[in-house]
Give the backbone structure.
Amino acid sequence: MGEQILTILTEITGTDEVRNNRDMNLFDEGLLDSLATVQLLVELDGELGIQVPVSEFEREEWATPNKIIAQAENLKD
């Protein structure tokens, strides 16, 4: 699942840096904004069947590639 999420993040951010630096804060680096976040949630649902209500999305818990993978794995179980 981690590899699929990294592929989604690469497509959304337009950079492979998300694969190389998985602890990079995507919001601080300007790679994720509110529109990209919605796109990420839509892709997680469409590609992996993981539904994340926007009302329950905590930006800090989803700030890095590693955190996104961990959150998605928790929701998938």
Remarks:
- The two ends are 12 Å apart (CA to CA).
- Residues 21 and 65 are 8 Å apart (CA to CA).
